Automatic annotation (TrEMBL):
Belongs to the ALG6/ALG8 glucosyltransferase family. Dolichyl pyrophosphate Man9GlcNAc2 alpha-1,3-glucosyltransferase that operates in the biosynthetic pathway of dolichol-linked oligosaccharides, the glycan precursors employed in protein asparagine (N)-glycosylation. The assembly of dolichol-linked oligosaccharides begins on the cytosolic side of the endoplasmic reticulum membrane and finishes in its lumen. The sequential addition of sugars to dolichol pyrophosphate produces dolichol-linked oligosaccharides containing fourteen sugars, including two GlcNAcs, nine mannoses and three glucoses. GO terms for cellular component: endoplasmic reticulum membrane. Coiled coil: none annotated. The chain crosses the membrane at residues 110-132, 144-162, 182-202, 233-258, 270-292, 322-344. Its EC number is 2.4.1.-. It comes from the Eukaryota. This is Alpha-1,3-glucosyltransferase.
Length: 421
C-alpha cells in the first residue's frame, strides 16, 4: 500500500512541475503575423472543426497551407478535432474560421495547456507508471525512483508545456536530388536499425526490447529525411526506459539532449524553467540511482569494449575514470555555454558563434555509450552517434551543407518558410 502512496506522490510532483512550466511563455507569443507553434496547434483545431475531413490536408481558400497547414498524421488531426469540440463549447471565438487567427488570451492559454496536461494524465503518465511497476529486475523503491526520474525529464516537459516545438530542416538539394535524398534516407535508416531488430526477433526479451527501442529511435533521428530539434525526444523517451539498467549513461544523455534545445528554449524566454527542471532531474537521478557510484566497466556496459582494447593495450584499465572526467567537463561546459549565451552578444561577423559552440560541445561530450550486452539482449547500441551527427543547430554545416534554421514549421510543399540567422 505504501508503494502506491509514494507513486501517487511522484505523479503529483510530475504534474506540479508540468503546470508550473506551463505558466511561462510559449512559441510565438505576441509575434505576428505567423506567431509560432502555439498558433499552429490552435489553427489545426480551427481547420479540423470547420472543414470536412477531405479538405484538411489540401490547399483551398479556407485552408491556406502556407499558414500552418496541417502536416501531421490523421491521429494528430483527430486529437485536434476533439480539442476543438471542447473549445467550441467554452468559447467559439477560439476556433472561428479565419477570424481566430493569432488569437491569444490568458483563458485560451489555460485551455491549451490543459489539453496537454489531460493527454498526459490519460496516456503518458499511466504508461510510465505501468512500465515502472512491471519491471521485475529491480526493487519497489527503484521502481518509484525510476518513475520519478522519467516524469521529471526536462526535455519533454519544456517542449510540451513551454515551447510547443520549433523545427529545423536540412537543405541538401544542391548535393542530391529530392527523390534521391528520400531513398538514401530510407536505406540508411533501414540498415542501421536492422541488426538490432533481427537480434531481438531471434532472441526476444523485455530488456532487449527496451534497448532496441533506443537503437531504432536513434536510427530514425540520425537518418530521417526531415529533422527538427524536438526529434531528439524520440530518442530520449526510450532512453528513459533504460535508466535503471544504465543510470550514469542515461542521465548524461538526457541532460545533454535537453541542453541541445537551448537555442529554441531561449527564444521563447524559457531559460529559468529549463535550469530549474534540469537541476531537479539531475538531483533526482543522482540520488535515486547513485550514478557516480555506478561507473565500473560492468555498470557502464563497457566491459566488452575494454577487454577488446586491452588485447592491444594491456594497461588500459582507466576507462571509468575517463568517463567520469568527461562527464564533469561536459556539465561544466554546458553551464559555461549557457551563461555565455545569456550574458554575451556574439561578434557581428559570427552571429551563430554560440550555436556552433553548443554543437561543438555536444560533439566533444559524446559519452561512449556502447551497450555491450550478451545473451538475448542487444549487442551494441551506439548512442554516442547522436552527439556526433544528431545536432541540427550547426552554423558550420549551414555554410557548407546549406542548412537553414526554420522558425517553427516543417518545410513541406506549399508552405512558406521563414529563415533567420
Amino acid at each position: 500500500m505504501e508503494k502506491w502512496y509514494l507513486m501517487t506522490a511522484v505523479v503529483l510532483l510530475g504534474l506540479t512541475v508540468r503546470w508550473t512550466v506551463s505558466l511561462n511563455s510559449y512559441s510565438g507569443a505576441g509575434k505576428p503575423p505567423m506567431f509560432g507553434d502555439y498558433e499552429a496547434q490552435r489553427h489545426w483545431q480551427e481547420i479540423t472543426f470547420n472543414l470536412p475531413i477531405k479538405q484538411w490536408y489540401f490547399n483551398s481558400s479556407d485552408n491556406n497551407l502556407q499558414y500552418w497547414g496541417l502536416d501531421y498524421p490523421p491521429l494528430t488531426a483527430y486529437h485536434s478535432l476533439l480539442c476543438a469540440y471542447v473549445a467550441q463549447f467554452i468559447n467559439p471565438d477560439w476556433i472561428a474560421l479565419h477570424s481566430s487567427r493569432g488569437y491569444e488570451s490568458q483563458a485560451h492559454k489555460l485551455f491549451m495547456r490543459a489539453t496537454v496536461l489531460i493527454a498526459d494524465l490519460l496516456i503518458y503518465i499511466p504508461a510510465v507508471v505501468l512500465h515502472c511497476c512491471c519491471l521485475k529486475e529491480i526493487s519497489t523503491k527503484k521502481k518509484i525512483a525510476n518513475a520519478l526520474c522519467i516524469l521529471l525529464y526536462p526535455g519533454l516537459i519544456l517542449i510540451d508545456y513551454g515551447h510547443f516545438h520549433v523545427s529545423v530542416f536540412l537543405k541538401i538539394k544542391d548535393i542530391l536530388p529530392h527523390h534521391v535524398q528520400i531513398i538514401v534516407s530510407f536505406c540508411l535508416t533501414l540498415l542501421s536499425l536492422l541488426p538490432a531488430c533481427v537480434k531481438l526477433t531471434l532472441q526476444p526479451s523485455p530488456k532487449g526490447f527496451r534497448f532496441t527501442l533506443v537503437s531504432c529511435a536513434l536510427s530514425f533521428f540520425l537518418f530521417s529525411f526531415q529533422v527538427h530539434e524536438k526529434s531528439i525526444l524520440l530518442v530520449s523517451l526510450p532512453v528513459c526506459l533504460v535508466l535503471s539498467e544504465i543510470p550514469f549513461m542515461s542521465t548524461w544523455f538526457l541532460l545533454v539532449s535537453t541542453f541541445s534545445m537551448l537555442p529554441l528554449l531561449l527564444k521563447d524566454d524559457l531559460l529559468m524553467p529549463s535550469v530549474v527542471t534540469t537541476m531537479a532531474f539531475f538531483i533526482a537521478c543522482a540520488t535515486s540511482f547513485s550514478i557516480f557510484e555506478k561507473t565500473s566497466e560492468e555498470e557502464l556496459r563497457l566491459k566488452s569494449f575494454s577487454v577488446s582494447v586491452r588485447k592491444h593495450l594491456p594497461r588500459f584499465t582507466f576507462l571509468p575514470r575517463i568517463i567520469q572526467h568527461l562527464f564533469i567537463i561536459s556539465v561544466i561546459t554546458m553551464v559555461l555555454l549557457t551563461l555565455m549565451t545569456v550574458t554575451l552578444d556574439p561578434p557581428q561577423k559570427l552571429p551563430d558563434l554560440f550555436s556552433v559552440l553548443i554543437s561543438t560541445e555536444l560533439t566533444s561530450a559524446n559519452p561512449p555509450l556502447l551497450l555491450r550486452k550478451t545473451g538475448p539482449e542487444l549487442t551494441s547500441v551506439p548512442i554516442f552517434l547522436y552527439f556526433i551527427c544528431g545536432t541540427p543547430t550547426t552554423a558550420w554545416c549551414a555554410k557548407r551543407c546549406h542548412v537553414r534554421t526554420q522558425d517553427s514549421n516543417w518545410q513541406t510543399p506549399g508552405r512558406q518558410s521563414r529563415t533567420y540567422t
